[in-house]
Amino acid sequence: MLPQAKNADLVYVTNTTNSTVSVYALGTHKLEGLLMGVNQPYGLCSDAQGNVWVVSWGNNKIIKYAHAGTQPLETLTVHDPNADLYDCAVDPTTGNLAVTNWGPHNWYHGDVLIYSQGQGSPKAYVGAAVWFYYGCSYDNKGNLFVDGWDAYLNGYVGLGVLPKGGKSFQTINLVPSMQPPMLGTVRWDGKYVAIGDWEWIDEYAVKGSYAYIHGTTRLTDRWPVGTFWITALHGQNIVIAPDTARSPNAVQYWNYPDGGFPTATISHGLNGSFGATVSLAAR
User: What is the value of pTM for the model shown?
Assistant: First the structure.
């Protein structure tokens, strides 16, 4: 990691092919560093302190790094050899870490693992709306949203919420519904629940047990929408997403929620890009 990286806002991108995480300056796109030896990293998430969690699908570990750090601060291990870990999120109100488990092999039910303050052993949660779990995101009040595939119900995208302090997930019905095969992750954008859907991101307003579509961000020249991240750059909200299909060695920026053509493309230093997050430097 270059010494100046600690003072810069950083974009982290996982590389599934060579088991590394590339780190770039958010504004200049300069390659600032590389995290090595993370076995098939998939999803990424970060917290308000700039710490970054890397989900290692290859060996069922979740590894925490400080902003611009190269040595793990914490390593959590899921001891189920059949787990398929995908995405993560940090609760801004408690520091709890949520990790989605797509579903063990042989089409068994997946779950969401929550580590209290990002430590110790997790507690597993499941919800009726989702069978295979993909993305997760906390809102500013500590409610946890998850999306996935309700394979044994009607084959549509399922959305669930674990209310802050709740003991079980509640089903949220999407209006209109979304249908796989290509399923994107879920992110809280500060007001709406944003869900990736093929070439676009749909923003849903949640009202009780229903979520009604508010708008759509179309990402031109990009598919499918995978584990994207929403942040701000120079006063403009942007979405950052690796291109997992059309150009799997690139990560691109779009204005959010305007969408359209990408405003920037990073293609150097990537190899099988999959997940992205942003770590903000201390102010």
Answer: 0.95
